[in-house]
Design brief:
With 275 residues, the chain is α/β, with parallel strands linked by helices. It is built from 10 helices and 9 strands. Helices cover 39% and strands 14% of the residues. About 2% of the residues have low confidence.
């Protein structure tokens, strides 16, 4: 059986060269000329054109490829193609996708797929647990444009907006207030984002959690970095959650230690709370 962690080893970088905008990035890179697709794909395209490009890339992309560069922002909806390839090798709900963009890219587009709609398609892939769009400053998520945002990813709890200076408060109307995280500044966003992602990793793990479980040194280094950025109150909350989540293991460990030391002790329950 394929180990999904293998998908995250360093592989040959790939350049999907639509417009010549990507300079050489690394020794051994694989550059795939796609200039003839430029006008058919730029900004957006029909599903038929997108499927044709996907079929073409299926025949030329390496089986295992590393970081993929796609040229200018006119083509970032093509991200969906390598993402689909990766997801075919992963178990359900095992991958979090992080997108840095000042637009949500989750807008309705009935004519196919374009730069502003691809995230909604990514969020609905079975292997994708959640998509985080970080750094939104666009009014596209405001109340006036709420009807343009696709709701299915929110209703399935598979999409979160992280915004600065704008918000999607209307998500409360569909019972998904937690899918819209709004901040007054980029610094505030970072301070809120890191603890939230750390908590998510501690709770569910996914592929990244599997990787870290096999590399204790890397896990410790990442934990120190995250904790350094986290306010003490958040550290306390995370510790309480971890203790309560591992309640049964703690009880068993306590009973074992008592028995090994000849102590007659009956542990019935253990819990932690923050004062």
């Amino acid at each position: 059986m394929h180990d999904p962690r293998e998908s995250f080893r360093p592989f040959q970088p790939v350049i999907l060269d639509f417009d010549g905008s990507v300079l050489p990035v690394a020794e051994g890179e694989r550059r795939i000329p796609l200039g003839s697709w430029q006008e058919a794909i730029r900004f957006g395209c029909t599903r038929r054109a997108f499927s044709a490009l996907e079929a073409h890339l299926e025949g030329v992309l390496p089986v295992d490829c590393g970081c993929a560069f796609m040229g200018s922002g006119d083509f970032h909806h093509v991200t969906l193609i390598p993402l689909r390839r990766l997801c075919r090798r992963l178990p359900p709900a095992s991958l979090d996708v992080v997108v840095f963009d000042n637009h949500p890219d989750n807008m309705r587009y009935p004519f196919g797929i374009h730069c502003g709609s691809w995230v909604s398609h990514a969020a609905l892939l079975p292997s994708v647990r959640r998509v985080h769009v970080i750094g939104i400053t666009s009014g596209d998520i405001g109340l006036a444009h709420a009807w343009e945002n696709r709701l299915t990813p929110f209703l399935r709890r598979k999409l979160t907006y992280w915004s600065v200076g704008t918000d999607a408060a209307w998500l409360r109307l569909i019972g998904r207030a937690g899918c819209g995280m709004a901040f007054g500044s980029a610094d505030e966003l970072v301070r809120g984002l890191i603890p939230a992602l750390a908590e998510s990793m501690a709770k569910d793990g996914g592929v990244l959690g599997g990787m870290l479980s096999q590399n204790k040194e890397l896990a410790a280094s990442m934990a120190r970095t995250v904790l350094d950025k986290m306010p003490q109150e958040k550290k306390d909350e995370l510790l309480v959650q971890l203790l309560n989540r591992n309640r049964d293991k703690l009880l068993e460990k306590g009973r074992t230690l008592a028995a090994e030391n000849g102590v007659r002790l009956q542990l019935c329950d253990v819990s932690a709370r923050k004062f």
